[in-house]
């Protein structure tokens, strides 16, 4: 269940940004079943993703990781990943970026394929 402190902030219309400040940005994201990002990185920003409700799947160069409620992922600039709700129930996640996002470059090569190409 979504924490009461956040429930009134949740919007299923795709409006992600919750708060910005000097040197940071906070996003509260909703994910319907099957919804996900493309492959992307966060430019020069570092970040942390926390699953508040539901289950998300993160795909990176190192493989696939299922993130349940309460799970966190910390990432540095240049980390390429994809986040998807592969579950049958909606999910909610909180993302903090430092500094705030100024770019989110997309990538076309799947993480697993890119790793195999580098090994050759």
UniProtKB/TrEMBL annotation:
It comes from the Bacteria. GO terms for molecular function: ferrous iron binding; oxidoreductase activity, acting on single donors with incorporation of molecular oxygen, incorporation of two atoms of oxygen. Fe cation binds at residues 40, 42, 81. Keywords: Dioxygenase, Iron, Metal-binding, Oxidoreductase. Pfam families: CDO_I. Belongs to the cysteine dioxygenase family. This is Cysteine dioxygenase. It comes from Streptomyces tuirus.
